[in-house]
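Why do we bother with a discrete structure alphabet at all? Because it lets us treat a fold like text: something you can write down, compare, and reason about line by line. To make this less abstract, here is a complete entry for Major facilitator superfamily (MFS) profile domain-containing protein. Read it the way you would read a sentence in a foreign language you are learning: slowly, and without expecting to understand everything at once.
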Amino acid sequence: MALKVLSALDTSKTQYYHFKAIIIAGMGLFTDAYDLFCIPPLMRLIGSIYYSDKPDKKAVSTMLFLALLGTVIGQLVFGRLGDLIGRRRVYGLALMLMVLSSVGCGFSICTTKNCVLVSLGFFRFLLGVGIGGDYPLSATIMSEFANKRTRGAFIAAVFSMQGFGIVASSTVTMVVCTIFKKSSATVSEHHTPPEADVAWRLILMLGSIPAALTYYWRMMMPETARYTALVERNVVQAAKDMEKVLDISLSQIAEEFPLSPNPPQYSLLSRQFLRRHGRDLFACSAAWFLVDVVFYSSNLFQSLIYHSFIDHNGNKKLNAYDEAFEVAKLQAIVAVCSTIPGYVVTVYFIDRIGRVKIQLLGFFFMSLVYFAIGIPYKLHWDKHPNMGFMFLYCLTFFFANFGPNTTTFIVPAELFPARFRSTCHGIAGAVGKVGAMIGSVGFLWFSREDKSGYPDPTRMMVSLIILGGVCLVGLLVTYFFTFETMGRSLEDNENE
């Protein structure tokens, strides 16, 4: 028999605190996207300052690898701590690490090429640890506060803050570059003024402000009732905490017998855990791995899109500020036209048609789009990149977000017992970020560029077809292994 406080959470009406929790939990994802997507335009500035044109592929790959490696570690460590000592106790720590690391990125020491990149890489690694820790904690906290009718929409809304982080990153980059360009008297296509070294640092540090503003509210959040009642075994405290934040009277949720029956006692690394939850953990981890291979491989398109829609095949020369501005503008266009609409559609449909159907739909259409780009790439798109290519490129982001990129964040927060929920979400996310390493670093090395900056067309074609095949594998994993969690309480999902 379910505890009254948990039943009340599952059946509660949508209230002000739910929306407040979305903002508080989502600000970590906002900061994550800001810091991830500000790097491509900033690399144009850094390249003009410390390199003759742009950082070599080795430097770019190292920066990506360090941030993703930190994310893997953060998801595993903070995910486990969230189950061992409580979600709230480590939630503020993850956010504070993100804030301090963002500021540290801007204060990367020295002014020589190697010293700056080493320092920046170190702080990007720490930033990745904080971002990684935020993933399992945000998803778990939102799932445990939400009611079962709209739980998917609430978790998806938290994740959708990434889209607004991309827009904020691009907007800040464009504004800062415009201000610095107007205030500089020496900027030209052949000369980058010394104050550009301040511009990229300022853009990085500004990303810490939204996260810092929500730190107080994170520390004021009570522990989730499910953790307090089911893990700490303090049902009375769980009821008192929920009375403070939700419109529920204590008399409605107070238990006649405050101690609930003891749950099955088995450890994370046990045969019983594998028998009960091994399939679910495999499904969540494999789907997240596959979608991140594809999602982070979008780096493959950057040079082609830049030359086709910004640099006009090299006929138009741009200074460092203009290059960073145009790359940021392109990112903002993609986010507004495809990324954010994908999130919005998911929020609307996630509790109507279910997680599994959306994930299947996303993988299926992503595979079609990648095949549509990849198969004729060498014969058509390589020689005639146009708005048709741009449209298909945007579709990959739409169906990633109205699909597996969002659902892989939601499902692990709903499938596992309270005492393993944050840990298992962290494991699935860490496996996903290993896929991101393969996607962003491995494919970046695989695609060789010619002297004009274009990727090798044959390698590009093969890469795109492989990505379409990866999406088909994701579709199969989802169909055969992923369990639907829509409309059930978290405890029902666990038992089933």
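What the structure line is telling us, in plain words: The domain at 4-255+272-489 is CATH 1.20.1250.20 (Growth Hormone; Chain: A;). The mean pLDDT is 85.
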